[in-house]
Amino acid sequence: MNNAPIVFRAGEGRAATRPAAPLPSSAEQRTVTLQFDDNALLPLLYGEHDRHLARIEQRLGIRLGSRGNRLTIAGGTALTEVAEAALRSLWRRLEKGQPVGTADVEAALRMAEGDAENDPRLPLQDRPEIRTRKAAIAPRTPAQADYIDLLSRQEMVFGVGPAGTGKTYLAVAQGVALLQAGRVDRIVLSRPAVEAGERLGFLPGDLKEKVDPYLRPLYDALHDMLPAEQVARRITSGEIEIAPLAFMRGRTLAHCYAILDEAQNTTPAQIKMFLTRMGEGTRMVITGDPTQVDLPAGQRSGLSEALRILDGVQGIGVARFAEGDVVRHPLVARIVAAYGRADGSAAYGRADESAAHGRAAQAVGHGRAEQGAGYGRAEGQAGEQPARGPKKERDGTGK
User: Fold this and answer.
1) Which residues contact 330 (CB under 8 A, 6 or more apart)?
2) Is 212 in contact with 191 (CB distance < 8 Å)?
3) What is the mean pLDDT of residues 77-105?
């Protein structure tokens, strides 16, 4: 009888055997066997055509084998621990009746890798969640978990990082959760009406129709948290207000949850105006990506200015995201990383160019100094000529 482990490959409708992939030496190798008590959930854990298991194998370079309700993990010690934590996390989701898709597998792997690297305060299963009546929203990266923790503890939070990291989505989710729990009376969502590098010209319609295109991402997040008819009803009643930043001046926002999105496109005066609208019982979240500023050339970003000025102020939390925290699509993370490398190279190039300009200016300065010295000597010689001239005349007339 062939006792080779059964290993899953994506794209096949059933389990298949294949030669084992090279594993670390026995000193570094570890084998773990997980046993699951509900066979009906196993197909959901493994994924269609076992694609979830194949993705875990591909990501971690380990080997997964299954017999009955047992799943064996073989590979390096650290990697098998990550796989075990991710699989247990996915199994808990299934036990709660929550779906498991490709994005959830990626999220579980990111969380498990972050836990293994950072030795977090909380176990994976105890990480904070945002609970709305429609769904429980769990963090998909360790940075998101820290962000959710800050949103629950701090009165003012800055979420800073690249696109696709969930900054605005999680902020809106927290606002909806607080509104449904009765901890705030309303939600105020705002962002600057700045065009992304192109002139759109005159927009037809009333004021709401003119500004809605700029605020559409906030509407999209709301519809993920609430039924469409409830969003419309709460907007009509004033429980949810979506307005451009220009309408915030002169107001006091009390007992509300206020979000300023795309804050990198505010000026220093605008972001100061928004931050000082904070009234009694209000929480504020400011989100933005300092690398995507659409302000006119030469205009300072209010977000960068505020982060510098408010650093260390009590009651303000700052959550910073990196390219590894992008959850929108794996390709988005690679795009962000590529642009980051290009921007770094450009910065080095500008530094080298500035140094070259400095050296050139210094050389020009030395040249001008030498030229000035030459002019001085020439003028000195010219100044001596009149004294010699009369002497020659006297010599000429004395003959």
Assistant:
1) 106
2) no
3) 89
